[in-house]
Write a structure and sequence with these properties.
Elements lengths: L53 E4 L34 E5 L10 H9 L2 E5 H6 L2 H4 L4 E5 L4 H13 L4 E5 L9 H10 L10 E3 L4 H9 E2 L5 E5 L7 H13 L3 E5 L7 H14 L5 E6 L7 E6 H7 L9 E5 L5 E3 L2 E3 L11
Parallel strand pairs: 2-5, 2-6, 3-4, 3-5, 7-14, 8-9
Antiparallel strand pairs: 1-4, 9-12, 10-11, 10-12, 13-14
Helix pairs in contact: 4-5, 7-8, 8-9
The structure holds S-adenosylmethionine.
The site of S-adenosylmethionine has 26 residues, from helix 6 and strand 12.
């Protein structure tokens, strides 16, 4: 199974680390670098980010930024507040990278990343950004899996310290991602979204990238459900699955499988089969737009046993057709309803 786990799903079992990465011990003084880092109350010569990340700069100097005092094991408290920063704030942009290949990124996302002084993100996502973009950034701050709260706080602190910052994620920042968390953290620090000119730069969400690989399964009403019980309890996820499967929605399933979530996946398959026929078409897309992309169209009755195969992991999105979805020429087709009004 892949360990390329999306961080917002925070499934520590997929990682060999405990979400605490090695800290960057090469931190130099903020005055040595061109960037503005850290709150005024912290000593930039000794401040280190506690997010478990690594900070690198395109110049020789590196610096750890932000006045956060939390670490990954206790990442519930917000450290510095807006009062701790003397600088005029920069801009904070939550940028969606799309599925993962450079051509899948929007032009606006590319521009936003080129505008940013600092780019912050999960290491896997940072690696998806073309070199010509990361090379021009003053600093790249990346953390391994987990640490999404501390990483997002780091991006807010860097912005309040006067830098233009892009925090990146796969797909779209509004789909099971960090745009909302960024706003919550800004608010909890006593700052405002306007103060940091907060902008969400949309990206192509996994449902759409994966839908495109499968044909046209999503052209009618669609519901997305994440099987990650990190933030939503499983009974609630089960009741959402029942509600969606009872109605005639196409269902996209995010975060479908991990070693810790075998049971969630199994339960999901059982629930779907209580409302849908076993021959309901199901599309499985692993790592859309990435080197290890895999696509499969199967039937709902076959889905559960595929949970133990390589195609289904935390970089997979599953599309469950509605009762009208059919497979034609190796593509899923969900009629939009034109056939009821037009002859063709
Ligand atoms: C935390 S969510 C982030 C979703 C993302 N913000 C989006 O808009 O697609 C992570 C989940 O998105 C899905 N996903 C992300 N990238 C994917 C890709 N390239 N191919 C297939 N599924 C992907 C997987 O279901 C994964 O478990």
């Amino acid at each position: 199974m892949s360990t390329d786990t999306d961080p917002e799903s925070t499934d520590a079992d997929e990682s060999t680390s405990n979400c605490g990465a090695s800290t960057d011990t090469e931190a130099e003084t903020a005055s040595d670098s061109g960037s503005k880092c850290g709150a005024s109350s912290s000593d930039s010569t000794s401040s280190e980010s506690k997010c478990g990340g690594s900070s690198s700069s395109s110049s020789d100097s590196t610096s750890s930024c932000g006045a956060s005092s939390d670490d990954d094991s206790t990442e519930k408290e917000v450290g510095a507040t807006v009062e701790d920063f003397d600088a005029d704030p920069g801009q904070l942009m939550a940028v969606g990278l799309g599925p993962g290949h450079p051509e899948g990124m929007t032009q606006r996302a590319r521009e936003a990343l080129l505008e940013a002084d600092h780019i912050v993100g999960y290491t896997t996502y940072i690696e998806l950004i073309p070199d010509e973009i990361t090379e021009q950034a003053e600093e790249i701050y990346d953390t391994p899996m987990c640490g999404e709260v501390s990483r997002t706080e780091e991006s807010v602190d860097r912005t309040l310290a006067g830098n233009d910052v892009a925090i990146v994620g796969s797909g779209d920042p509004n789909v099971y991602a960090l745009a909302g968390l960024a706003l919550e953290i800004i608010e909890s620090k006593g700052a405002t979204a306007s103060m940091v000119d907060f902008e969400v730069v949309p990206g192509v969400p996994a449902a759409q990238s994966c839908g495109a690989r499968l044909g046209a399964p999503l052209v009618n009403d669609t519901v997305s459900i994440s099987l990650s019980d990190h933030l939503v309890p499983m009974p609630e996820i089960e009741s959402r699955l029942h509600a969606a499967a009872k109605e005639s929605f196409t269902i996209t399933i995010y975060n479908p499988w991990s070693r810790k979530r075998r049971d969630n996946f199994q339960k999901c398959c059982e629930i779907l089969l209580t409302h849908r026929d076993p021959d309901t078409p199901v599309g499985i897309v692993h790592a859309a737009g990435r080197e290890d992309e895999q696509v499969m169209i199967t039937e709902l009755g076959e889905l559960e046993e595929l949970g133990e195969s390589e195609i289904i992991d935390m970089t997979t999105t599953i599309v469950v057709g509605n009762e009208e979805t059919y497979v034609w020429d190796d593509r899923m087709v969900t009629p939009r309803g034109y056939e009821t009004k037009y002859d063709y």
